[in-house]
UniProtKB/TrEMBL annotation:
It comes from Fluviibacter phosphoraccumulans. Keywords: Acyltransferase, Cell inner membrane, Cell membrane, Membrane, Transferase. CDD domains: LPLAT_LABLAT-like (cd07984). This is Acyltransferase. It is found in: Cell inner membrane.
Length: 290
């Protein structure tokens, strides 16, 4: 009962906020992000540490901007997930590489999209699936109300969400075998046994091997993508970087190649990456592999 009430109120709040203009929500995000940057927190400390690994000369202004971008990414969701704004979203996203994507899909070997948690990553699936069907793997939240909220509002006619389980992986395989698109956010720490250690901004990070295994099924092309948030509510730009060669058959080398591709996307818009995520944590069962 409590979970149902929480879901009801969460949906109601999202719908109400979705009535506000995008630039208003993003300005609110910037304001609350500035306040969050002023206050001490574990997230702030970890973000500063992780950002310094990638940018030794990082400035306070960059760190502040990263916190503001984080809160923008949260506050803009009601607008982006509101069905009433679907028609507007088509005009808010620009991309110079749709023909490249269209040609890759037309080859019939499937397409693998990978993205770091950067920019407006929540909208990658809905935006892409307006053009091509796609299946995206995600980690279900532990909170039942949040999971129900996501299932209610993070929907698109040709977008399939599958959990990060064996059943979900089978769904990804079926999608690739049909010659369609699968999507990953592979900068998350996988469960022990599903990864290898590979450098990420010069530090060993436990990294997903599933992308390499999926590519080996049909030698599907891999594109790194990132949806950059433009200033003042002016919309988003979809960046697309194709991998020029297949991932190595060696899982550790393949993981390093994939992380390098993610780094290249992050360097295009460094303050929009979720630096506060605990990327370098080690699952207990993987400690013997360090």
């Amino acid at each position: 009962m409590a979970s149902r009430l929480a879901t009801f109120f969460a949906i109601a709040i999202f719908r109400a906020l979705g009535l506000l203009p995008l630039n208003t929500l993003q300005r609110l995000g910037s304001f609350f992000g500035y306040l969050a940057w002023l206050l001490p927190s574990t997230y702030k400390q970890r973000a500063a540490s992780n950002m310094a690994l990638a940018y030794p000369n990082v400035t306070p202004a960059m760190q502040r901007s990263a916190m503001q971008q984080l809160l923008r990414s949260v506050l803009e969701l009601p607008f982006l997930w509101s069905p009433r704004n679907n028609a507007r979203l088509r005009h808010l996203v620009s991309c110079d590489h749709w023909p490249l994507i269209d040609d890759a899909v037309a080859q019939g070997r499937g397409l693998i999209l990978i993205s770091p948690h950067i920019g407006c990553f929540e909208m990658l699936g809905p935006i892409y699936s307006e053009r091509h069907p796609a299946t995206v793997i995600f980690k279900e939240p532990r909170q039942k109300w949040l999971s129900a909220l996501i299932q209610h509002i993070r929907v698109a006619p040709r977008l399939t969400l599958v959990p990060a389980t064996q059943k979900g992986v089978k769904g990804l395989v079926r999608t690739l075998m049909r010659g369609q698109t699968v999507g990953f956010l592979p900068d998350q720490v996988p469960t022990a046994g599903d990864g290898v250690f590979a450098p990420f901004f010069g530090q060993p990070a436990y990294t997903l091997t599933l992308v390499q295994r999926m590519q080996s099924l049909r030698q599907s092309p891999i594109f790194t993508v990132g949806l950059e948030r433009l200033d003042d509510g002016k919309g988003y730009h979809l960046h697309v970087i194709p991998m020029t060669s297949p991932l190595s058959e060696d899982p550790a080398i393949a993981a390093a190649e994939m992380n390098a591709a993610l780094e290249a996307m992050i360097r295009r818009m460094p303050t929009q990456y979720l630096w506060g995520y605990n990327r370098y944590k080690i699952p207990s069962a993987a400690r013997t592999k360090v």
